[in-house]
Write a structure and sequence with these properties.
This protein is mainly beta. The protein has helices at 2-20, 212-218, and strands at residues 29-30, 40-42, 51-54, 57-60, 66-71, 80-91, 96-102, 105-113, 118-122, 136-137, 146-152, 156-161, 164-170, 189-193, 195-206. A hairpin with a 2-residue loop joins strand 12 (156-161) and strand 13.
Length: 251
């Protein structure tokens, strides 16, 4: 009788398990505290503009040509989501060049480059975002925030813009690389090109399939970073793009 009762209970248990569905995603891990540059260092591109926190957001002043920040902690690895909210305040080139780790290499999401509208991933098989299949044309309004969510997986990268599908790349058999200009952004960094940009938030979350304990295990605390107390200042972006050290040539 006990065995018969057990067989009656088993289908109910299986049904309840199926109804439970997949576990919820891990919580987001904020990489910018909204007050300081803690955990980041100003990227020494040479000719970089001032980096400061203004009204709770990062402000990357126009560089000659690049201004950026590189993460000083432990970067995400494996499968993860990375999300940035950014805006172009002045200039006509990319306001978001987000470099991130993929497998044993790196890629850069370029938003608004090559004169202001070219987007894509640099680089795939040696071809940058303006030349490979991810190249997408998109206009961006000045002083408007846009949220890009990058889903990094072993064999693919998918990018969402304001919760809408934007671009994607199948990475199977592809060679990943960076343009030389942004090598200093490794392993995780953000930059603008001859453009003043605002970054309101930058965060990531691991993609694991179990519960909160696994989410906690996937997170490794960032390493302490000694950050510069002052930023270099550069002239504002008043000159035409062509006068600011070859805008449209560096990604």
């Amino acid at each position: 009788m006990a065995m018969a009762d057990g067989w009656r209970v088993l289908p109910l248990a299986l049904a309840l398990t199926a109804c439970a569905g997949p576990p919820p995603p891990c919580p987001w891990i904020e990489l910018f505290d909204g007050r300081t540059l803690a955990g980041w260092r100003v990227t020494a591109f040479g000719g970089e503009g001032e980096v400061a926190v203004v009204d709770g957001a990062l402000r990357l002043a126009c560089g000659n040509p690049l201004t950026g920040l590189t993460y000083a902690g432990t970067p995400p690895t494996g499968s993860y989501d990375l999300e940035v909210t950014a805006a172009r305040l002045d200039g006509t080139d990319f306001f978001c060049g987000l470099t991130f780790p993929v497998r044993d290499g790196h890629l850069t999401l370029v938003a608004g480059g090559w004169g202001g509208a070219v987007c894509g991933l640099s680089s795939l098989d040696g071809e940058d975002a303006s030349r490979n299949a991810t190249c997408t044309l998109r206009g961006f309004e000045t002083d408007r925030d846009y949220t890009f969510r990058i889903e990094v997986r072993t064999d693919a990268v998918t990018v969402w813009l304001d919760d809408e599908p934007f671009l994607a790349a199948d990475l199977r058999g592809r060679r990943l690389s960076l343009r030389p200009e942004v090598e200093l952004s490794r392993p995780l960094g953000i930059a603008s090109f001859a453009t003043t940009a605002r970054v309101r938030s930058l965060r990531w979350r691991p993609r694991v399939t179990a519960a909160a304990a696994d989410c906690a295990a996937a997170w490794r605390a960032p390493s302490p970073a000694a950050l510069p107390s002052a930023s270099r200042r550069r002239p504002a972006c008043g000159a035409p793009a062509s006068a600011r050290s070859g805008s449209g040539t560096g990604r």
